[in-house]
Amino acid sequence: MQENENQGPPQSPPPQSPPPQSPPPQTPPPSPDPHDTAATAALPPQEERTWGMLAHLAALLGGLLSSWLGGLGVFIGPLVVWLVKKDTMPFVNDQGREALNFNITIAIGVLALIIITVITFGIGILLTVPLGIALGIYWLVFTIIAAIKANEGVAYRYPFTLRLIK
């Protein structure tokens, strides 16, 4: 009997640690409220955004009006907007220069396709016509995207553009 008294109360197994919990799901930070004055303080004024948008859209208008000349007018619109407003509106200076650089880059691409066609005595047209169509769609889509972004106050940068005018 004494052996039972010396043993003491029966021991319970050691407590188990709780199972590991997964971290709480990460929620993305809230997007800035357009009506928040702190967030909109960095946006250029509406007039500058409109002129920035016009710098991009002027290339479309110039291309349509000069299509009988091979679309050479795509330079004139952005060039005029940039030259007229570059000293008074920093955002238009940036966006006009960007639109002009993009249209120069596209013109270089079109010129390269024409040279390839001529050098191959017309056989290269099997390659250059589909590439020219793709280049035209690329120009149209990115010009519209740039105009929308400029109107939102975003300093848009065209992809794959040579920055020739600094």
UniProtKB/TrEMBL annotation:
Residues 10-32 have a biased composition (Pro residues). The chain crosses the membrane at residues 53-84, 104-125, 131-148. It comes from the Bacteria. Residues 1-40 are annotated as: Disordered. The keyword Transmembrane applies. The keyword DNA repair does not apply. It holds the Pfam family MamF_MmsF. It is found in: Membrane. InterPro entries: MamF_MmsF. It is a multi-pass membrane protein. Keywords: Membrane, Transmembrane, Transmembrane helix. This is DUF4870 domain-containing protein. It comes from Alkalisalibacterium limincola.
